[in-house]
Design brief:
By secondary structure, the chain is mostly helical. The protein contains 14 helices and four strands.
Length: 309
């Protein structure tokens, strides 16, 4: 694929036309209003929107002030304006054409949806009856002072003790343990639930937490929060990878898993919502003279309900 910065203005216009028409039905209107808006209030130094190759410039509120205040982009309408939608798609076009993932898909003529569908179908989830049994067992262990694992917290996991002591304070469980490798327990659980061993029964699969929140004593071991993900698709599931394609996959992946595990998510949300986590964190910090604001902030996120999308 030719670099967007090496294209002529005409080539860029043609590529953007093909790009957006593969994404949205209203592409012709978006393009027309984008071009009209730019002709009325151009970015200084550029005679055409297609002369611009730097997406950061188009996201700069100062450089694009006149453009964004144009009536084409600001008139009130349900869902925003076609011109603004066109501008946002052009910004995404510029970013995608610098993205190696998008380059790969373009080179092999793979549509993102095809990749996403394959990725979700290739993930291996434990059977629902096993998930239910393991989830009930985990809840039993939490509330009956039995061993439960969480992932380490902080640099070199030195902050893990804050979570362990907090769980003892709230749930009266004295057997909360740090996972020795930060993924050993979920891996052994998934191996047991599926009967599949990596590098023996399956190859190039990664153990992934679907919703994360791995310092949460309910979610680190939750059987509905883990699956085997093909390594080729795993980068799309995490937070390390940036760009629109990973964001799109993550939404699709979460919706897929959410549909599969909705009753377990609702059960977790019901349980965690019975606790005033913020109040309990304040009580714990006061009782144990903990003055770590970062921990409190992180713990509120870790122990939050899962938002259904």
């Amino acid at each position: 694929m030719k670099s967007v910065t090496k294209m002529t203005v005409a080539e860029r216009r043609t590529e953007f036309d093909k790009y957006i028409k593969n994404k949205v039905k209203s592409a012709p209107r978006y393009i027309a209003d984008l071009e009209k808006g730019f002709s009325e209030a151009p970015v200084i130094g550029y005679g055409s929107i297609y002369e611009i190759t730097d997406p950061d410039l188009l996201e700069d509120p100062v450089a694009t002030k006149a453009l964004r205040e144009s009536s084409v982009f600001t008139r009130l309408s349900v869902g925003g304006t076609a011109g603004l939608a066109g501008l946002n798609w052009y910004i995404r076009f510029l970013k995608d054409y610098r993205d190696s993932y998008y380059d790969f898909l373009q080179h092999f003529d793979i549509k993102p949806k095809e990749l996403f569908d394959w990725g979700m179908n290739a993930c291996i989830f434990p059977p629902l009856d096993t998930v239910e049994r393991e989830w009930n067992d985990l809840k039993h262990r939490i509330f009956n002072n039995e061993a439960v694992y969480i992932r380490g917290y902080g640099r070199d996991a030195h902050g893990t003790r804050l979570y362990i002591d907090f769980y003892k304070f709230v749930f009266e469980n004295e057997h909360i343990l740090k996972d020795p490798t930060n993924n050993n327990k979920p891996t052994s659980n998934l191996r047991r639930m599926t009967g599949l061993v990596r590098n023996k029964d399956i190859y190039n699969y990664q153990v992934s937490h679907i919703w994360g929140q791995t310092k949460n004593l309910f979610l680190f071991e939750a059987p509905w929060n883990v699956c085997y993900t093909p390594k080729i698709i795993d980068p799309f599931t995490g937070h390390e990878t940036k760009g629109d394609l990973p964001c799109e996959f993550q939404v699709s992946f979460i919706k897929y898993a959410q549909k599969k595990y909705k009753r377990f998510i609702n059960d977790y949300n019901r349980i965690i919502s019975t606790y005033d986590i913020e109040g309990l964190l304040n009580d714990y910090c006061a009782a144990y003279s903990v003055a770590d604001e970062r921990f409190v902030s992180d713990a509120l996120k870790e122990l939050s309900p899962i938002v259904l999308i």
